[in-house]
Description:
By secondary structure, the protein is mainly alpha-helical. The protein is about 45% helix and about 10% strand.
Amino acid sequence: MRKINRSSPSVEFSKWVANNRTAQWGDFVKNAHDLYLDVRDLLGQDQDGVSGYTEKPLGKEHIDHFKTRNLFPNPQCVFDWYNFVVDERDEPQFGSEVKDTIVDINDYNSNIIINPIVEDPHYFFTYSLNGEIIPRPSLSDVEKSRAIRTIELFNLNHQTLVSCRADIINFFQCLNDEYTIDQMENDWRNSGFYSLYDFYRENKDAF
């Protein structure tokens, strides 16, 4: 997970919301489907083509509501541009589908779940050399609890994600003066998990 620098709402989206104040989310997805796709793609570009939660490259993506629609059904939240995070669709093992199943209102009201649009996950997370995402040792007890709960809510240490990260971390062993981290990051641009490159830069002596 890494910080999402969300762009401003598109003019077309803002106009649609203003003209459809009683609409439900399904109305937008179905009746303004082309606009929905444009919004989804724009949000995905903000995220460099990866899931806003797992950093896995997007394929069959959808717009997720960080604050879930079942807990926050009011239109102001449902159509809040800064509540949108693009994630993989039909992925029940990690990411938004896990979050939507197990999150509760206290995770939001007590400011437990880490929001990658508002906060910088880099402050909270680092990695182990086996590919697991872990809380940073420097965190306070409260911050560590938030990091652990966020990992749980998105199942960020599912074996699929750990394995993908481990493959990239293992390749860091091959870096040298002729093949640098910047070159690898450029060559592997479509592999996702971009926060791993920051992890390497911070811990390259460990490699």
